[in-house]
Amino acid sequence: MTGLVLWLFVAIGVWDVTRPPPADALSNTPLNQPSIWFGFAVFTAGIMLAWLWQIVVVRLATQAMDTRGSVRSAVASQRALAVSALLLGLAHTIAVFVGRWVDHIRNLMGDWILIDELVVILPALIGIAGVWWIQFAVERRLRDAAVFGALAGIEGRRINVVSAPRFVMSRAQQLFAFLMLPIGLVWSVREGTVFFGTPDWTELVIVLGMVVVLPVIMVRVAGTVPITKGELRDAIARVGLKQGARINDIRVWRREDGAMNAALVGTVPGLRAVLVTETLLEGLGEMELEAVVAHEVGHARRRHIPWMLGWIAGIVLCSSALDALAIRLGAPQEMQWAILIVSALIGIWGFGMVSRRCEWQADAFAAQHLSGMERGKARGGQIEFEAAGAMRRALGAVAAHAGMHRQRFDFRHGSIAERQRRLDALIGLDMQALPIDQTVRNWQIVIIGIVLIGFIGMFLITIAGGMP
Question: How far apart, in whole angstroms, are the C-alpha atoms of residue 13 and residue 312?
Fold first, then answer.
């Protein structure tokens, strides 16, 4: 649902830039406008269709799981979530651009900083929560199977058994902490600077400051607790020290949905946090856990977060420059809409491409670490079989714990099967000259080029007096 939530905000931003002129503004009696009821109808239809689709898929999947023990059916229901997200996104898009949903909400309650935008996306968020609730029937069966396996001694790990409300709330908490919170704060800064009439440079300064301190807020909203001392903390910290990435904040990530996961939050040394879930700590062996931690350290050492932010910044700059040029040339409003929508789609597509390659590089970094690579020490050698295997086993354990098919595609991470295949291909290669490192460098060149083109375009249009 990550891509859907991103699109909810992008659609509002596109509407704000391309909305009809004030002469075409809505009346001050929005409830008498047919289009507001059109918006309600579109959202209702979109939510009902998404829920109905998921109900049908989940019903078929659970029947197949109960009668034949079909894992493929569970995978199909998980993939069906993409169709539900598409239906909700389509309803939001039609309501915003055809039903003028944003203007109606603002006429009803005023243009409050961020509040009106949250009300605009509320129907889609309700739809997401309902889809998760419906999908829980499949998740519960997968967890039941894991529990029976643990009781039979097949798997000696902790299994979290939760109810549907707790499952949905846990998913919502993670979505809010790691996606909606940063988007909302940046959005608030943008609207606040416009509302108070502060210089444009103050917006940049505030956003940069938020990039520094936001991780401190995020890890607390996500429901984490610090590991203050002990062998586990020392072992995780040693991985960071060995690779030259200082990590002072190591936390247990308590998730009600029982997910087996880890994450690195923050870009500034000293303010970074490594998060590991309880199920990850209890379900992995020592070497596999070290591989996962090294994977997260790899994100820091390869500066993946700044590069992904650079991609977003480059797309925004290029889109703004093209939009300003279109206005200067007197292009029709439909052209501006096309520029912004195409830019948003390219931005989302490219973000996924960059993110997945960063994951592949972090996997390779874990294999390099376990093969003896150490920051500041020149050491050649090859990727060892056991080093790649440890990361491979860790990925397999994560997929097995979640009841996830290894072929299931994830927008930001790709599939487990693809990542394992790439790890296998690393064995025996010179760990100082891995193909994925060159691939990521190529993408970094592309990002630098896009940012430069955007800066130059904005600069030329500005000095030509073409900015609206």
Answer: 14
Output the average pLDDT for the chain.
82
Higher pLDDT among residues 147 and 355, named by residue: 355
Task: Please write the tens of the pLDDT for every residue from 162-218.
Answer: 678 888 888 888 888 888 888 888 888 777 777 777 766 676 677 777 777 788 888
- Determine the Cα–Cα distance for residues 156 and 158; give it in Å rounded to an integer: 7
Which positions ≥6 away from 160 have C-beta within 8 Å?
A: 143, 255, 256, 257, 258, 279
pLDDT digits (tens, 9 = 90+) for 87-135: 999 999 998 888 888 888 888 888 788 888 899 999 999 999 999 999 8
Q: Decide if 339 contacts 322 (C-beta within 8 A).
A: yes
Reference 74, options 138, 137, 135; nearest CA is: 138
What is the maximal distance between C-alpha atoms in the chain? 74
Strand order in the sheet with 249-253: 224-226, 249-253, 273-277, 262-265
Which helix (H) or strand (E) segment is 392 a member of? helix 385-402
Dihedral of alpha carbons 277, 279, 282, 283, sign: negative
With beta carbons less than 8 A apart as the criterion, state whether 462 and 420 touch. Answer: no
Q: Are the CB atoms for 389 and 424 separated by under 8 Å?
A: no
> Which of 141-145, 330-334, 463-467 is least confident?
463-467
Please report, to the nearest 10 degrees, the dihedral formed by the alpha carbons of residues 49, 257, 161, 225 taken in order: -160
- Identify residue 123 by its one-letter amino acid code: P
Residue-wise burial string across 99-109, b where 16 or more C-beta atoms lie within 10 A, e elsewhere: bbbbbbbbbee
Report the length, in residues, of the chain.
Answer: 468
Among candidate residues 181, 207, 183, 179, the one with its CA nearest the CA of residue 193 = 207
Query: Is 60 exceeded by the pLDDT of residue 468?
Result: no
Q: Which has more confidence, 221 or 259?
A: 221
Closest CA to 89 of 149, 9, 177, 200: 9
- Vertex 400: Cα angle to 399 and 402 (nearest 5): 65
Rounded Cα–Cα distance for residues 428 and 383 (Å)? 5
Encoded amino acid at 450, one letter = I
Instruction: Please give the distance of CA 288 from its chain centroid, rounded to a whole number.
Output: 24
